[in-house]
Write a structure and sequence with these properties.
Elements lengths: L15 H8 L3 H8 L7 H14 L5 H8 L4 E7 L7 H13 L5 E7 L6 H9 L4 E5 L6 H8 L4 E4 L10 E4 L1 H14 L4 E5 L6 H16 L3 E5 L7 H13 L6 E4 L2 H13 L9 E6 L3 H5 L4 E4 L2 H16 L8 E4 L2 E3 L5
Parallel strand pairs: 1-2, 1-3, 3-4, 4-5, 5-11, 6-7, 6-8, 8-9, 9-10
Antiparallel strand pairs: 10-12
Length: 341
């Protein structure tokens, strides 16, 4: 019998047997490779992956689930009200990179009410994913509690205050705030303001606490512009105008998001205030947009794509049974100082 070659048209549905015949490998080797078998040589796995792609192989998910109890699906429950520029695309890109060449596929569900557990409850009841990634985690996040109680594999982008350990990957917010304060102190600032949004997240509390501690160590006066979560860009721009004309405005500003930074900069520019001369600013960078628009502004970068890769790595380990307390990592802030020493 003549073997099918990768790329050659195959009548009917493409099966594991079709791929085995096309590659000259055994059925068990093909099956193991498509399940992500790490005991196989990379050359073998690449050969199987190339043949599967060329032949248009689509796994029989119903059959896989019946045989193994697995769906080969990871679910991303993504905050729908996110105000960081390009966050969703970069997070999905990172997860996509991490599952490339594995049996896993990704489903994405936007969630606009972080207090709701409806999405998580649906996943748990229907078991339509092997594991879940959630973003924008709160200190006592009910979604985390529900999955811990169900002993269901998940990982959170952000920490919580639960006593029971669970997998997480988080931006080191405390280091971000400390680094930003020290940068402004080094610029000669004496009064620094923190502009921060969503007070429902653990990240919020970590940044605010570290901000006040670092400012106290550096002998700086502090101000806090908080609960900006519900403000429109136009309203934030107006606040920028008010700050620019305020007699006791801060001489240093730290902002936790690019969208808020852009809105405030609009107000400053409208008022004739020059950042870098009248006021120094450090913002949290999650895209390349603001450096293109304002190449002299200092920022501290979080790599969202890398976060997606790491969250997926942790989740897969959890699915395989790794202890939760061993699956907790932080990403360090990356300073992007652009306004001179």
């Amino acid at each position: 019998m003549q073997k099918n070659r990768p790329g050659q048209a195959v009548p009917g549905r493409v099966t594991l047997k079709t791929i085995a015949e096309a590659t000259g490998l055994s059925l068990s080797t093909v099956s193991l490779s498509l399940r992500g078998g790490t005991t196989l040589k990379q050359e073998t796995r690449d050969k199987v992956a190339a043949a599967a792609k060329a032949l248009g192989y689509v796994p029989d998910r119903a059959g896989v689930r019946l045989r193994t109890g697995k769906t080969n699906v990871l679910a991303l429950v993504l905050d729908g009200a996110e105000d960081s520029i390009d966050f969703a695309r970069q997070m999905i890109q990172g997860i996509g990179q991490a599952i490339k060449g594995t049996p896993y596929h990704l489903t994405v569900t936007p969630e606009f009410d972080r207090r709701s557990t409806d999405t998580i409850r649906y996943i748990l009841e229907h078991r339509n994913a092997d594991g879940v990634i959630i973003t924008h985690t709160g200190p006592r996040d009910p979604r985390v509690q529900m999955m811990v109680d169900a002993n269901f594999p998940f990982v959170s982008h952000g920490r919580t205050e639960f006593f029971t350990p669970h997998p997480y990957h988080d931006f080191h917010a405390e280091a971000f705030a400390t680094m930003a304060v020290e940068r402004l102190a080094g610029k000669g600032c004496r009064k620094v303001m923190l502009v921060i949004g969503d007070d429902r997240t653990t990240n919020y509390h970590n940044i605010v606490t570290a901000f006040h501690k670092s400012a106290a160590r550096n002998g700086l006066e502090t101000a806090l512009l908080e609960s900006t979560r519900g403000l429109t860009p136009a309203e934030l721009r107006g606040i920028g105008v008010e700050l620019a004309h305020s007699a006791d405005r801060p001489d240093g500003l730290i902002c936790d998001s690019e969208t808020r930074t852009i809105a405030l900069l609009g107000g400053f520019m409208e008022s004739g205030l020059v950042v870098g001369r009248d006021l120094h600013l450090v913002y949290k960078q999650t895209s390349g947009i603001l450096p293109t628009m304002f190449p002299r502004l200092d920022s501290i970068r979080e790599d969202i794509v890398a976060a997606g890769v790491e969250l997926t790595r942790l989740l897969r380990l959890r699915i395989e049974g790794a202890p939760a307390e061993e699956l907790q990592t932080l990403s360090e802030p990356q300073p992007q100082w652009r306004s001179g020493d």
